[in-house]
Amino acid sequence: MAFTFAAFCYMLSLVLCAALIFFAIWHIIAFDELRTDFKSPIDQCNPVHALVLPEYSIHSLFCIMFLCAQEWLTLGLNVPLLFYHFWRYFHCPADSSELAYDPPVVMNADTLSYCQKEAWCKLAFYLLSFFYYLYCMIYTLVSS
Amino acid sequence: MQVPSGYGLHHQNYIAPSGHYSQGPGKMTSLPLDTQCGDYYSALYTVPTQNVTPNTVNQQPGAQQLYSRGPPAPHIVGSTLGSFQGAASSASHLHTSASQPYSSFVNHYNSPAMYSASSSVASQGFPSTCGHYAMSTVSNAAYPSVSYPSLPAGDTYGQMFTSQNAPTVRPVKDNSFSGQNTAISHPSPLPPLPSQQHHQQQSLSGYSTLTWSSPGLPSTQDNLIRNHTGSLAVANNNPTITGVDSSSTTSSASPMPNSYDALEGGSYPDMLSSSASSPAPDPAPEPDPASAPAPASAPAPVVPQPSKMAKPFGYGYPTLQPGYQNATAPLISGVQPSNPVYSGFQQYPQYPGVNQLSSSIGGLSLQSSPQPESLRPVNLTQERNILPMTPVWAPVPNLNADLKKLNCSPDSFRCTLTNIPQTQALLNKAKLPLGLLLHPFRDLTQLPVITSNTIVRCRSCRTYINPFVSFIDQRRWKCNLCYRVNDVPEEFMYNPLTRSYGEPHKRPEVQNSTVEFIASSDYMLRPPQPAVYLFVLDVSHNAVEAGYLTILCQSLLENLDKLPGDSRTRIGFMTFDSTIHFYNLQEGLSQPQMLIVSDIDDVFLPTPDSLLVNLYESKELIKDLLNALPNMFTNTRETHSALGPALQAAFKLMSPTGGRVSVFQTQLPSLGAGLLQSREDPNQRSSTKVVQHLGPATDFYKKLALDCSGQQTAVDLFLLSSQYSDLASLACMSKYSAGCIYYYPSFHYTHNPSQAEKLQKDLKRYLTRKIGFEAVMRIRCTKGLSMHTFHGNFFVRSTDLLSLANINPDAGFAVQLSIEESLTDTSLVCFQTALLYTSSKGERRIRVHTLCLPVVSSLADVYAGVDVQAAICLLANMAVDRSVSSSLSDARDALVNAVVDSLSAYGSTVSNLQHSALMAPSSLKLFPLYVLALLKQKAFRTGTSTRLDDRVYAMCQIKSQPLVHLMKMIHPNLYRIDRLTDEGAVHVNDRIVPQPPLQKLSAEKLTREGAFLMDCGSVFYIWVGKGCDNNFIEDVLGYTNFASIPQKMTHLPELDTLSSERARSFITWLRDSRPLSPILHIVKDESPAKAEFFQHLIEDRTEAAFSYYEFLLHVQQQICK
Q1: Buried b vs exposed e over B985-1000: b needs ≥16 C-beta within 10 Å?
Q2: Of chain A residues 58-87, which have a CB less than 8 A from chain B?
Q3: Which residue windows are transmembrane per the record (chain A) (predicted)?
């Protein structure tokens, strides 16, 4: 039983993962509101934008931490999402401030359903990884 | 019978104040100009009252002269006319007394059984039902009160009915008139609200006395009505298209049971006989509604007649509710399992003469035709003259005759597939795009305007009541989009048309698929805004050099009085170079005051109140400014342009009210926010590989546009540049704020007179055309269908709601559809667009278009109903999106694949055709040609030197032009004009307009001995061959021989010769058919300008692109792969 760096990483990521789950839920609600016509895309996309960058940076932080802690399996699980985030970030309209959610196109049914699916998938991923981190944290604490 | 005393038919101009009427006095006070209203209305609106006729109604003062159009529509003023001989070409309203054989049909649409059937038997051929109709149940189960007194559709409504018919109204007619509406206003039955101002009451009473003078009270009408006798309009010039040119309303007195077939039979002689003689394709309903496709009447105007102008302008409106007619089918004959027409799809080869056959039938009664013309297989590689001689018209949906008549005009509303496939799987199999093409705010000659206290809408989906709903009984109607059963409100029971009670199905809303409602205050978030116009003008050195200011100021001065608006209209001006100049035009100043703001990083408004001023109060100052403006900056040395900050200032200025900002820009913005760099590499102009920079370089303009859109401000861009100005970025300011974009490459007022002339003409149209403010457009469709992508200039607010800060009559939209749930339980689908806007007079109005289409279950039927022009326009829109989001080559591949896929899908359905040939159904035969034309269009061509701005502008046009204009842009029309004859000519306003046949776009058709006119939509070319007859050159062009024709010639002289007259009347006729007056280039065979002309000959081979035949071979190769 030792408090290693890896254990610390898992503890921190556990907390942050909760935040990410909250973000994902927030996204889902936001897109649902758009779909049901409660809000104008302009009003809606601005707060959504505000959450995108924190989410991406938190996730990148995980990956860096796991890299430092040499938790290769965990890192491997997270790398695909990391690349996806990079792709989203650099593959967006002209100014990077807009990020992925562009008010004029977000109401396009295809885009909207894509965004919704993306949010659901992320929620699932973060939830699973939450429990995975919990398990790993206990495992590292107990095993060493 | 409760007849609200306030009901009346009012002059259009009366309605104008109702915007105020509905808003409380409290709100009014918030408007600074409020006090003017009283004076204004009394001044402006008393004038029209003097010449009130119950029918001619103009929205814009001064438009009255325009109103007299070709065939006179009969309008019976008062009911005292003993007999009325309707003009043959227009609606005649039949009134018969009780004993006449055609009397009331009222009793026919009563049995509830009919209704229930109506949803499943949508598309049977109507005509054949005529003969049997009389045998139908007469009992009046559902309508116990047998007689529904129906007045003639005459009186005030006569006019309105004559032109709202879908098939007969052609753009030619429509566009030349700015909206003139027939008003049906029946203000609330309630006593006038206290908030009503006294002048309104005055005008109300004034109008009602005028309109009501002859008929008197409704209760006395019956007597009068009976005196009406009419004659059927017999002359039916164009049966293939209209089917019925006259219809009749009958008087109510006698519900004679046997009357219907006589009634309709009068105008359907052919149909009756054909249905009698050939019972085979009887449109019997089938147990399975899914397989009840319509045998009748394949798209009639496949071979339209050129003489569209001469054909009857209108017909009376059908007298039966469509639902009822559907319902008659079960009574006609037994169940017929399958339809010979369509099941015979595999049997093509057995009908060698099908072409002649169907043409001999003339599209009128295709019931006896074994196979619709649109399905005739065409061997593309062998058919040399694929292009018809006459313009291609939209196919008519395969509905029964009455629904057809009620359906929305294809000019306003078109679907790429006029037969909607039942499932997404079927649609995927057909490999054709499904979508709608809309032109919602089109200038209409006639439009029923309805003022009613309650606008009847479905309670669950909010659909407006429309001709395709079914009335379950007198008190309930079933929504045709969500199938909810709704109550008919009390007010709706009264029919202002007939001034009778209990006929909800005869209300104008239910008789017209295009109507306009005057909306109440429920439809306002704030008091209707005034018309506000702001002009933001580039006055840098470059702009002054180009000299557009002179033209603009001149146009403005000329059209200042014609700017749409009321007494509250406001106008403002801003100019900018490296600084921003505001103009204080406050009333009372001796001359305009210029205020310069040089802090472009943080723009502020120097005097926010006096920059946008009332047009009428400050008219002198505005005129002074406009006179001075062109010369104010002549010696400027400022070359920079701070467009971004100027736009920010404009946004600040406009945001309290909303309105229209017109931006004139002549170069790349080089200062402040939104500055742009040149991105075009001239060496890449003719690259065949990658075309970059089709998307915006910065989000500044998009964000600004979104802000503007939120404040109900539209930004219109006039780009007059000689160099690259990054239209791709600048266009965003108009795209997302529902503005429009005009581009004049290499504009110079003296060096390039044709562009200058174009600007002048465009400005005239731009300044005087109708405009709607703070608009939203919602598109609804039958449950099961869903919209997924929109094309056009707007901001998508919700899945089906487009936010349009401004709407103008030249804006077109496209919508892609998908089928989410299968449509097996319905045989009809409907689409409804509702455009809610504030008119320039400050009224809130809703324009509603409803389109109804049949659902089919077989692939053959889907192909039979393809509207190839609509499909091409939708594909073009999709390709623009693709080229911006992906790449141009991707978009080009997608276009080619669209042809390959659809033709191979067709080939695989027709198994027994020889596979070596490239076959297409007749409805799709132009598809490859149009796609090739698209590939050679400026927007998508590669290999030919195309400036980036030109390309981007072409893309913007594809996105925002309505279908009629877009088609000319994609595939121009070519006519030979040196031998115009009067053969087949049409008469328009006492002029004889020759109708030369269309030529295919190939140099093969050009001869040196001839002269050819090419109509590219916004530009006309006349190509004069070297060996052109000297007579033509002398008589038409006014020069002695070919050599003396100058290189730049843009006008045809007015010569007093027959051939000149013919040529000019033909060109004028073409011009009148579109809002923008195109400029004319006369191109000599030798001149360098001929390249411009030759690039439009899309069937020919160019260095970089296939010829048509090569393209076909390429497609065939791809299919065989």
Answers
A1: bbebeebebbbbebbb
A2: none
A3: 7-29, 58-84, 123-142
Phi and psi for B524 in degrees, rounded to 5?
-120, 140
Residue A126 main-chain phi, psi, to 5 deg: -65, -40
Tokens of B796: 């998508």
State ipTM: 0.82
pLDDT of residue B898: 93
Residues from chain A that touch B818, judged by Cβ atoms under 8 A, are 109
Residues of chain B with C-beta less than 8 angstroms from the C-beta of A33: none
- A positions 87-106 inside 8 Å of B (CB): 93-95, 97-98, 103-105
B1062-1074 average pLDDT score = 86
Residue B435, pLDDT > 90, answer: yes
The residue of chain A nearest to residue B694, with distances taken between CA atoms, is A94
B1064 CB burial (10 A radius; 0-12, 13-18, 19+) = middle
**Greatest mean pLDDT among B313-327, B386-400, B729-743:** B729-743
- List the single residue in A with minimal CA-CA distance to B820: A109
Write out residues 923-952 of B within 8 Å (CB-CB) of A: none
Q: Which chain B residues have a beta carbon less than 8 Å from that of A98?
A: 699
Question: How close, in Å, is residue B801 to chain A by CA atoms?
Answer: 9
Structure tokens, B117: 């059937």
The phi and psi torsions of B443 (rounded to 5 degrees) equal -65, 125
- Span B479-486, average pLDDT: 90
Whether residue B209 is predicted with pLDDT greater than 50 in this model: the reply is no
Q: Can you read off the two tokens belonging to residue A2?
A: 């030792």
- A61 by DSSP, 3-state: which? helix
Q: Which residues, at least 6 apart from B1041, have a Cβ–Cβ distance to it below 8 Å?
A: B1030, B1033, B1034
Residue B202 makes CB contacts below 8 A (sequence gap 6+) with: B42
The pLDDT assigned to B575 comes to: 94
What's the whole-number mean pLDDT along residues B796-817?
Answer: 90
- Please state the φ and ψ torsions of residue B856, each to the nearest 5 degrees: -125, 160
Tell me the DSSP string of B439-491.
-TT---S--EEEE-SS--B-TTT-PBP-TT-EEEETTEEE-TTT--EEEPPHH
CB B720, CB B665: distance < 8 Å? yes
Reported pTM:
0.71
Euclidean distance between CA atoms B593 and B149, whole angstroms: 65
Average confidence (pLDDT) per 10 residues, chain A, 144 residues: 78 91 90 79 75 87 88 89 86 53 74 88 94 90 80
The encoded tokens of residue B936 equal 């050679």
How close are the terminal C-alpha atoms of chain B, in Å?
A: 72
Task: Mark which residues 34-63 of A lie under 8 Å from B by CB.
Answer: 34-35, 37, 40-42
Taking a C-beta distance cutoff of 8 angstroms, is the pair B836, B776 a contact? yes
| Residue-level pLDDT at A71 | 84
Q: CB of B697 within 8 Å of any CB in chain A?
A: yes
B436 — pLDDT class (breaks 50, 70, 90): very high
What is the C-alpha separation between B19 and B21, in angstroms, rounded? 5
Question: What 3-state class would DSSP assign to B595?
Answer: strand
Mean pLDDT for B414-425 is 92
Residue B144 vs residues B103, B106, B110, B147: alpha-carbon distances, Å = 18, 11, 9, 9
- Please give the residue of chain A at the shortest CA–CA distance from B801: A37
CA nearest to B775, candidates B847, B828, B726: B847
Q: What is the radius of gyration, based on Cα positions, of chain B?
A: 29
Of the candidates B697, B789, B797, the beta carbon closest to that of A109 is on: B789
**Residue partners of B695: CB distance under 8 A and separation at least 6:** A93, A94, B728, B884, B885
Q: What are residue B1020's DSSP bridge partners?
A: B1015, B1080
